[in-house]
Amino acid sequence: MAFRVISPRILKNLRCNTTTKPLKTFHPSISTAIASPSPAAATLSLEDSEQLFGSVSTKQLLRSSVVQHAMAVESLVDLGMWVMKSSVFESGVMKDLVMTTMRQTFYSHFCAGEDAAAAGRSIRALNDTGLRSMLVYGVEDAHDNEGCDKNLQWFLNNVDVSKSFPPSSVSFVIVKITAICPMPLLERLSDLLRWQQKHPSFVLPWKQDSLPIFAESSPLYHTQKRPKPLTPEEESDLQLANQRLLKLGQKCEEANMPLLVDAEHTTVQPAIDYFTYSSAIIHNKDNNPIVFGTIQSYLKDAKERLLLTIKAAEKMGVPMGFKLVRGAYMSTESKLAESFGYASPIHDTIQDTHNCFNDCSSFLLEKVANGPGSVVLATHNIESGKLAVAKAHELGVEKVKHKLEFAQLYGMSDALSYGLSNAGFQVSKYMPFGPVEMVMPYLLRRAEENRGVLAASGFDRELVRKELGRRLKASVF
Ligand SMILES: Cc1cc2nc3c(=O)[nH]c(=O)nc-3n(C[C@H](O)[C@H](O)[C@H](O)COP(=O)(O)OP(=O)(O)OC[C@H]3O[C@@H](n4cnc5c(N)ncnc54)[C@H](O)[C@@H]3O)c2cc1C
Fold it and tell me: Do 367 and 310 form a contact (C-beta atoms < 8 A)?
């Protein structure tokens, strides 16, 4: 490895050289965060590694470099998945060894910490570099009410942790509906909602006010025959799920802490959207969206659905917040559609996905510039970042900057995050936290889903390497 041959003197110099250049000193808050960027800083510049990583320590850069290289190797992700699933992982010694290695490498690179105190330190450190945090407790899907109740406590606790920081530090609390409503029920609700879309006279007595969750082009193949109505037990489970979301929404509303609902695969997404929109109708008031939904632009129906939902929300006077992503379940979606004998719901080419993301981004920016609502552009894609920055300038940065949040995963695409932040935009990192044993399976699953992204993060690896080289040279000469 390159740094094995570095002399102790140089290493000492490197350690001292933690901050080579102060980054901007303002700390954004949700409404008054962004100090006006100087005209020179207003564009997205990603060439100058010294400027981008000025506030990042050499130790952090070295760890980033090692982890990024390791994650780019597909076989390492496979090995990680194999170890976590295999029986060797159940043996005490082996498990301890794997956990210690994971804790010191991948976990500390991609996670905020094991508990609220550790997460707090990561949040402060990130905020010192000008970025904000989106806290996500790394829980997996729940299959019964007991699991959902336990998860709800974690999410509520997450709101308490988040609100204990100034708004300049934590931008959103994340919730996975699959963790607070049992998965089998989400599947049943989605089936029933799809059947109603196919047969508008089909009555769903439990359905509350919501917004459109399907468009003409939405895939409905998952539901081939008329589903049975909810049983009394399912109705009671649904009531419990509604109560959990209501409790969480109320807590977020009281704390004025926006709640971002993650999107999952299409088997359960109709029910997730249904919960999200009915909750938004309750909590999103006075130009202040509290509950945000997620639109996956890799889906062919994404744009049409987004337009319909926004139109209906406008008619009802509900200010909406959306997180826009490309989507993380590509292979699951294609396989599922194939098993039903249908074409994949994902765009046929990656360029179509890029176009859809950029069109939806442009549409949402126009909406928030001229009316209520907010938008989170969650992407590592540099071209999409550049286009959004250009659109913000075209619309007038002042009109959008408090309503726009860029977001990247913690430990990924730091160059883009710092570049956007240097250009005067609000930027958050999506930060999972929780005990290593709980978060590692979550992380590895995300790594498996995002293989393409990990392998494609060469741009960031190159910039980190360039900056490490520059610091090394600066220490030697
Ligand atoms: C803060 C944050 C929150 C997120 N939340 C969610 C969420 O709630 N739900 C969710 O599903 N995902 C979520 N994601 C993951 C996201 O959906 C993407 O998987 C990931 O960010 C990669 O997309 P990108 O915009 O960064 O673009 P890029 O870095 O450009 O990645 C493009 C990737 O898109 C994929 N792709 C999409 N469409 C096609 C196609 N037609 N053909 C081939 N490849 C295609 C490929 O895997 C490719 O590697 C989140 C990401 C972030 C940063």
Answer: yes
Distances (CA, A) of 462 to 48, 212, 367, 386: 12, 44, 36, 19
What is the chain's length?
477
Q: Is the CB of 417 under 6 A from ligand 1?
A: no
CA–CA distance, 386 with 36 (Å, rounded to integer):
19
Which H or E run includes 346?
Answer: none
Q: Is the CB of 427 under 6 A from ligand 1?
A: no
pTM reported for the whole predicted model: 0.88
Q: Which residue is it, tokens 């074409």? A: 343
397-417 tens-digit pLDDT: 999 989 999 999 998 889 999
- Nearest alpha carbon, ligand 1 atom 2: 378
Q: In order of start, what are the domains of the chain with their CATH numbers?
A: 1-19+41-111+438-477 (no CATH), 128-433 (3.20.20.220)
**Both tokens assigned to 353:** 């996905």
Give pairs for 203-211: CB < 8 Å, separation 24+.
205/229, 206/230, 206/235, 206/238, 207/274, 208/242, 208/278, 209/278, 209/281, 210/273, 210/274, 210/277, 210/278, 210/281, 211/277, 211/280, 211/281, 211/309, 211/312, 211/313, 211/316, 211/318
